[in-house]
Write a structure and sequence with these properties.
By secondary structure, this protein is an alpha+beta fold. Helix content is 23%, strand content 28%.
């Protein structure tokens, strides 16, 4: 039999909610004036909660996603890295040989004519740097509870910091030392100024493919003059620029041919490389680099030590370890094999 509305209301005040059509009891029981089940407590001891702790429904993805950093391209543009000396080496002398001599008319008793060699020495100084990794026992354990190998993450960070500094030194060297980079070696020839474009200005922003190609041809022409003809269109070369500048190599003419297409056709062994460091405060810089001349590499990135791990020092409940390295910057052996243009 259905419970009467008054009884339903009373039960509701006791925290018992029933559908009006629910069958509860016979009239004889209802005569008890709905005093049944009043032994149940009328309020909860704890706050009402219909769920579970959120941690029970949470997961931690095992794949670590690290923050992006700018690419490190100096060693690629220079054609690789080379170790010179070790961490005790403070300076280096790079010999440069020059052949001398002259000839005269032949005569059986003539002693004229002479052959000689002039050897020059180019000095460079190394720069040593360091960093220290520290971690605590409880700190590592707390990260371990979240399935994070914290000490490995510190190792990754230390390696990245070293690589970033090395890359920076390869581009700019170290001030106050005879330590120079690819972009500021004092022996590099002065940068060209790009030609004025039809729409005005010298940048490639609105330049036609023909105008962009003309600026690249100017660099190639300068290299030809500097190298005395020891370069041709088939020579391996690097055209280095900022990522923002590379976009303009897609400028297309009315025939659907881009600057990149024209370069590929005319310079079959030229490779384009980009690095953010070519966006300088003075404008976008481009460099045309002849990679090798007469079998000699134009330059390379050099270091004394890439990463020397020193003693691991334990403390009361933590550890620390020093890592060090050393750089020579960029060793440009033939500066005349590099031409540059500023302001594209």
């Amino acid at each position: 039999m259905a419970i009467k509305p008054a009884e339903l209301a009373f039960l509701g005040t006791q925290g018992i909610i029933l559908h009006p059509a629910s069958i509860w009891a016979a009239d004889a029981r209802l005569a008890l004036d709905a005093q049944i089940a009043l032994d149940a407590q009328t309020a909860t001891v704890f706050p009402q909660n219909a769920g579970v702790p959120w941690q029970m429904t949470n997961i931690i993805d095992p794949e670590m996603v690290r923050a992006l950093v700018t690419p490190m391209k100096a060693s690629i543009i220079l054609g690789g890295e080379t170790k010179k000396g070790d961490w005790t080496t403070l300076s280096a002398q790079f010999p440069v040989g020059e052949s001398t001599g002259y000839t005269t008319s032949y005569g059986d008793f003539n002693r004229n004519g002479s052959i000689g060699a002039n050897i020059g020495w180019v000095p460079r100084q190394s720069y040593a740097f360091q960093t220290v990794t520290q971690w605590g026992e409880r700190e590592a354990a707390l990260y371990g509870a979240a399935a994070v190998d914290y000490t490995s993450e510190l190792g990754h960070a230390r390696g990245l910091v070293h690589q970033k500094f090395m890359n920076l030194s390869y581009f700019f060297g170290v001030s106050t030392l005879q330590n120079y980079g690819l972009l500021n070696d004092p022996s590099l020839s002065a940068a060209l100024t790009p030609a004025t474009k039809a729409v005005g200005g010298a940048t490639w922003v609105s330049a036609t493919p023909t105008e962009v190609l003309a600026d690249i041809q100017a660099l190639y022409s300068k290299l030809q003059v500097q190298l005395g003809g020891n370069l041709d269109l088939a020579s391996p070369m690097i055209l280095a620029m900022s990522p923002a500048t590379e976009v303009y190599l897609l400028n297309t003419n009315s025939f659907g041919i881009s600057v990149a297409d024209i370069i590929k056709k005319n310079f079959p062994n030229l490779k384009v490389e980009t690095a953010p460091e070519y966006a300088t405060v003075g404008g976008n810089l481009i460099q045309l680099i002849a990679q090798t001349i007469d079998g000699i590499r134009t330059g390379y990135a050099a270091f004394t030590e890439k990463d020397r791990a020193h003693a691991l020092i334990p403390d009361l409940s933590s550890w620390a370890q020093k890592h060090s390295g050393g750089t020579w910057g960029a060793i440009i052996r033939r500066p005349l094999a590099i031409a540059q243009s500023l302001g594209v």
